[in-house]
Amino acid sequence: MSAGRDGYRKLLADIERVGTSRGRRTFGRYAIEGIRLAERAIRSGVHPTHALVSASFDDERSNRVQSLLRELREGGALVEIAPDAVLLTLSEGRKDGNIVTLVPLPEERSLRQLIEAGPVLLVACDVEDPGNVGAMARTSLASGAPFVSVGRSDLYHPRAVRIGRGSHFRIVHRHYESYDDLAKECAREGVAFYASVSSGGIAPRELAKRLRRPAAILMGQEAFGLSRAAIEASEERVTIPMATAMDSLSVSAASAILLYELLQRT
Predict the structure, then answer these.
(1) How far apart are CA 78 and CA 72, in angstroms?
(2) What's the CA gap between 78 and 57, in Å, rounded?
(3) Strands annotated E in the chain
(4) Fold classification of 8-104 (topology level)
(5) Do domains 8-104 and 111-264 have the same CATH topology?
(6) pLDDT above 70 covers what percent of the chain?
């Protein structure tokens, strides 16, 4: 289906709108970029509702491209064709930017559903870099740990979605507007907090022996770490030993190490 010549302009405006968290909430959609993510969405049972494709992509005769376009149209997606320059600008020159699709935001999961899916939760507390959030989501899915985003941690930011490489379609996730909201609900459900800190904590292997489930592993923002309230509310603080004078690992790398130590060794 297509709205006809120049009909892509409204869809382009919608894609630009969902580039913000407010636009995503209002429209109930988020954008995914590239043929691989579109294919993964469909395979995961997440059906795109709209697709903006470049003219050269639409003219591509490969079986892969034509199969995807056919699946999109047969699935009821509105497919609009735009000049190559439009997609190039929209994607800021990325090579996968010749197709951008919109998919529905998933229904919010309850904390109880997260605990049932996996008793160790990975929590991103005000992690502002969407690339790190996307990498944490990917690690969370690979480790079998449900993912919680808090405050400014934006799981559906376009960069987070690109870095997530399709993990968004299958991840078990819940968002809280503030740490206080998270803390109150976790207290009701008996979830124990464990704070990741750059120094002064026990080693991950030691924490694996002491971990009480259900548990939430709190990861703080890149520059300042966790809030004092989050650290003080935690049963234990954990620090990853490092061999150099670096003051910390990236939050996404630290998340991967902690989940491996806590989930593979318990």
Answers:
(1) 8
(2) 16
(3) 29-33, 50-54, 78-82, 99-104, 120-125, 147-150, 173-176, 192-196, 215-219, 236-238
(4) 60s Ribosomal Protein L30; Chain: A; (3.30.1330)
(5) no
(6) 96
Q: What pLDDT, in 10s, does the model give residues 224-259?
A: 899 999 999 999 999 999 877 667 789 999 999 999
My answer on whether omega of the bond before 48 falls inside 30° of 0, hence cis, is no
Amino acid (1-letter code) at residue 60: E
Q: What is the CATH number of domain 111-264?
A: 3.40.1280.10
Write the CB contacts of 18 (distance below 8 Å, at least 6 apart in sequence): 24, 27, 29, 30, 31, 102
In angstroms, rounded to a whole number, what is the distance separating the alpha carbons of residues 203 and 211? 12
* Residues whose CB falls within 8 Å of the CB of residue 67, separated by 6 or more in sequence, listed in order: none
For residue 20, give the amino acid letter.
Answer: T
CA dist., res. 9 & res. 153, Å (int):
30
pLDDT at 44: 95
Q: Where are the domains of the chain?
A: 8-104, 111-264
Sheet containing 120-125: which strands, arranged edge to edge? 173-176, 147-150, 120-125, 215-219, 192-196, 236-238
Cα angle at 129 between 87 and 92, to 5 degrees?
A: 15
**Residue 81 and residue 62: Cα distance in Å, rounded?**
17
Could you please report the per-residue DSSP string of 92-117?
TT-TTTTEEEEEEPPPPPPHHHHHHH
pTM for the structure as a whole = 0.92
Please state, in angstroms and rounded to a whole number, the distance separating the CA atoms of residues 148 and 176. 8
pLDDT computed for residue 128 by the predictor: 94
